[in-house]
Write a sequence for this structure.
């Protein structure tokens, strides 16, 4: 299927040049048989692209003038995933003007216009059947995210005013490397020129973003990934907690869905759990909802604190 999709996109790109192509020329370019070419042309027409065929001597294929924006080349599952992704993004963050959530809301109402005709009815059915709850999260500007993406790709230094936790704002000059989405927050990982060190910035706290003319040479990332570096920073003052729970991984992940958690399935339907927590009390809610046996492997003080709490529940000292 991936080969078919790649071939269809190559055919579409060729036809979008605007000129006419003979069947033999297209088949040679795509390295397919004339029969496969005819099937691919039919697929494009099924997606809604107006491909005109001129039969006979001197015959050719041409993409005729159609809509200002042609339909997206998506299969059924991809169309559903696109709508669900937009709906999920629209339900997170603020709907203020210029935010990613607000842009997703607008796109969610328009995307069916870009789908092939055969998928528009299904998209309308999905939209009518779907409701999403709103998750309150800081709004990140769609324009800022796009600007940072370009700066990262072109290795351009950026400057912006950044408001820290204390509310104080300062102008920062940064080499941008990664944009990270983690636990409903958008972050920028970059090299801070003034601090001469790596820093992570909340995207919703930066204003006055400016792309400077200066470029920078790439530096090796300080961790295996931007997400890993962010997690290390968030968990710097937290304790690493490792559990073994007699419950499947899906149930464990759901019980600790509001925590930064890693789960791994083990034999016998058990799950290994790794969390970064401030105090042992954060364990209690998830474990209570699971209703399963568990063992706290580390740290020892968390294990002893939970054992003492269990004794208090039983009325024993």
């Amino acid at each position: 299927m991936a080969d078919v999709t790649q071939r269809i996109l190559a055919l579409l790109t060729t036809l979008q040049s605007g000129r006419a192509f003979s069947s033999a020329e297209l088949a040679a370019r795509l390295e397919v048989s004339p029969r496969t070419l005819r099937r691919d042309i039919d697929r494009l027409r099924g997606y809604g692209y107006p491909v005109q065929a001129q039969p006979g001597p001197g015959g050719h294929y041409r993409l005729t003038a159609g809509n200002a924006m042609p339909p997206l080349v998506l299969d059924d599952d991809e169309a559903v995933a696109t709508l669900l992704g937009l709906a999920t993004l629209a339900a997170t963050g603020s709907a203020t003007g210029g935010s990613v959530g607000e842009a997703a809301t607008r796109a969610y109402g328009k995307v069916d216009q870009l789908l092939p005709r055969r998928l528009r009815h299904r998209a309308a059915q999905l939209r009518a059947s779907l409701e999403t709850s709103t998750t309150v999260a800081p709004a990140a500007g769609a324009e800022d995210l796009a600007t940072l993406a370009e700066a990262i790709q072109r290795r351009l230094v950026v400057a912006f005013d950044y408001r820290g936790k204390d509310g104080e704002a300062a102008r920062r000059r940064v080499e941008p490397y990664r944009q990270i989405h983690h636990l409903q927050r958008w972050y920028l990982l970059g090299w801070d020129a003034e601090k001469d060190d790596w820093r992570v910035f909340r995207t919703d706290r930066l204003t006055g973003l400016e792309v400077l003319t200066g470029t920078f040479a790439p530096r090796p990332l300080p961790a295996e990934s931007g997400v890993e570096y962010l997690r290390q920073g968030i968990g710097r003052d937290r304790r690493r907690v490792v559990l073994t729970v007699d419950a499947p991984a899906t149930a464990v992940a759901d019980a600790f869905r509001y925590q930064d958690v890693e789960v791994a399935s083990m034999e016998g339907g058990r799950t290994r759990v790794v969390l970064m927590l401030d105090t042992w009390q954060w364990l209690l809610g998830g474990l209570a909802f699971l209703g399963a046996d568990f063992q706290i492997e580390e740290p020892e003080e968390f294990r002893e604190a939970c054992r003492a709490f269990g004794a208090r529940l039983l009325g024993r000292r």
